[in-house]
Amino acid sequence: MxxxxxNLQDVEHCLHLPENDEVHVFLLPAHTVDNLHKxxxxxxxxxxxxxxxxxxxxxxxxxxxxxxxxxKPALISxxxxxxxxxxxxxxxxxxxxxFSSYAPVGIDIEDTSRxxxxxxxxxxxxxxxxxxxxARLPEEEKRSCFFRLWTRTESFLKxxxxxxxxxxxxxxxxxxxxxxxxxxxxxxxGYICTVSYRQQLPL
Length: 203
Known about the structure:
Layout: E1 2-6, H1 8-12, E2 22-29, H2 40-56, E3 64-67, E4 73-76, E5 85-91, E6 94-100, E7 105-111, H3 118-125, H4 128-136, H5 139-160, H6 171-177, E8 180-185, E9 191-198
Parallel strand pairs: 1-2
Antiparallel strand pairs: 2-6, 3-4, 5-6, 7-9, 8-9
Helix pairs in contact: 3-4
């Protein structure tokens, strides 16, 4: 699979569904998306509907969604267009979205200027070896390392559809993790963005 980064011009000019070996990614400042919306949250959902409408050829207001057991939304097809897998993230002033025609996808963008209790969060959320490695780092190196690990973890769990309702102490989750490819993509200064996609579909 290859990651293809797109922009708003691509949405306006005959946007095609991702090929089976592609993941489409949009990473945009929220203010460029839609000046009608006051919040980044509203702008991100407006952009999601706009892109899904372009992919499917259906009016945004006609698109219907379901939710998985842990709340992950999925597009419902009426049989006249292919299913599109998608995931959305926003942080600070930026929006990130990932789309696939073939495999589950997850994406996470984080503003690295925000504060967190890095060691405590890592011990609760990350793989044990990742948390241990982070704890050994000097304080000045922890921030960038933490957010790289966080976006990797979050993008995977969002792609899986569980979010933080599961733990990496679960052997089943660790096994599932081995089927996913996780890639950091170029992001604006002060942000880290990571995309995850499943390489091998479950039987």
